[in-house]
Amino acid sequence: MKNHYTAVVVGGGPAGSAAAHTLAKSGVEVCVVDRFRFPRQKLCGGLLTQRAKKNYAAIFGPGWDEMYEYRCNGAKFFDGERLVNSIENYGELYVCDRFRFDARLIDKAKERGAVLVQGERVTVVNARNCVCKLQSGKEITYRYLIGADGVNSVVANSIFKHNANRNGKAFALEATLPASTLSREVAEPEIYFDSIDWGYGWIFPRNDVVVIGLGGLFAKNRDFRAIFNTFFQERFGKAFTGAVKGHFLPFGDYAKSMGRDGLLLAGDAAGLVDPITGEGIAYAMQSGFYAAQSILDALSGHTKNVNAEYRKRCAVITGELAYAAKIRNFLFSAATRELFISALARSESAPRRYMDLMSGDITYRELLKNSGRKLLRLAADKITGT
Predict the structure, then answer these.
(1) Taking the CB of residue 327, how many other CB atoms lie within 10 A of it?
(2) Start and end of every FAD-binding domain (predicted)?
(3) What is the CATH number of the domain that holds 180?
(4) Digit-coded pLDDT (tens) for 134-156
């Protein structure tokens, strides 16, 4: 590790790896600092959509088949025990183990020439002097810095002086169990819309294990462990006795400025997580790539304001999340949730549109435009009793 790099990336997850890979590929001296050693555990359902596959291919090139552990072509949607709809032969969905997925991504960045500093926590970012201070006492100076260090980002805190308010965030609990210990087989991703207020539950197969979790707005759900225990009991007919892990995640509250003074925020550090589907990996890779491209433009003289350039690129993401935040109120609000479930149950095309949305084949704006009239008719039918 040197004392100075053109770019320092804090966090070596999908956003940080995408940024470091892109910069190093163009010959930029870049250093990635991560507080853990790879491979490291990461709480995540691990569902990868076609959106993630497309972003991976655009950034890292070939090798997608090495990135996941399980592949399927459909999903099931539940309201309680009731299967309200399903989709078959949609196209490929993937489930990854983040332990391996993230390690493979950071390896690709290292292969391009990025320097990885592992097991070192960034404690202070001094934006005025362009200095990164590490827990070990070492200091790294930089010209540009990308904060890709997750929902509790040290970089974001150095910019915005975040308070510790968790009410605007979601919280998720998750357990991974051997498939052989469960009372039934799980062959496709299962989504449960009734399991938690302002959120949903999931059961994802991954070869010989099954990932079981739920997440919802922290302010609306206080006893997450009790909710998880009930969810497991109802899905598998026995009490849960294993280990469960939890973490906070963004819930539609993304950073409008995306950074400041040559500091760029990417992935969860910027709040770039879909507040409906929970999609985060694809947006993390995409935003990391955009951050790197913006720095390359600044280095080449194509732009004088790296932050403005980055915001412009990320508008395609933040615009989607803004629409998602509006639609979320309809999907999760107690006043309108029943309409959503009724629409999902009555429509043959609704599950496919949901998957198209996750794959990036349609936008939330298009979804709202195409579905608005149908929802109004459904609401009228409910009111008149027809």
Answers:
(1) 18
(2) 6-159, 254-305
(3) 3.30.9.10
(4) 999 999 999 999 999 999 999 99
